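Let's practice the habit of predicting before peeking. Look at the sequence and jot down your guess about where helices and strands might fall. Then scroll down.
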Amino acid sequence: MIKKIIVSFFIISIFHSKAQSNTKFLDKYNKLNFEIGIAYFYGSKTSTIPSSINYRYINYTSPRFGLHYDFLQIRQFNFKIGISTFLLQEIDEHYFSKEETVLDYDIKKRYITTSGDWQFNMPITVEYITYLPKSKLSFNASFIIGYQDYSYGETEFEIGNNNETASFKGEYSRGNNAWHPSTQIGIGMYFPFKKWMLRTNLYYNIMLEKMYEGTFEFRGLRQSPDIDGTYSFSGNSFGIEFSIYLAKRKKKQ
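Done guessing? Here is the structure:
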């Protein structure tokens, strides 16, 4: 859905914008700008298992912060570099129907890493800027390298009583190394004011390496045989960013 919105907005804006030959308006503001935003991460995938049990990672929302520098302007193109961060979380859910255990009710367990870990990103962005009557329209694309220490974890528990138990065991790793590449496309708007300027950007981010991958096993089920499976969480995301530019101080004559 988000990709369709971006493409539609891009096509409509081409026919309604008034193009200019440069990005001179950026010269009125400091090149360093601060970003704050919010991102929605998704992409859970679990191998086929009976409907009486389940294991999956849960989608989540994270804040984003960053600093960016507009280091080069050529005609209608603006090039940015920066550093940003978002909160990386681990939220997994396990489900046992009562038919699979000795209990007389279903079991659903959710484990949340409440503190989370901050992943740092280094984006390189190019944007094409065209003019609207009271604002500037930006079509942008980024290549991003994210850094987060390699991580490994496991979960293990039993459900039942002393005579009969069903058990779960899961293991995961966070990528194969500490560097996580991704690409991003977006549509943004610049709103210039006398003392400052606001940039908004609606974006879609595609991870080039899965954020999490792992294996799991269910044992001792009453209805189903022992089960082994795999799961992953892509970590693709979409969201919105807001950047603040401060106007340059005028030199005294």
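How did you do? The chain has one domain: 2-16+34-246.
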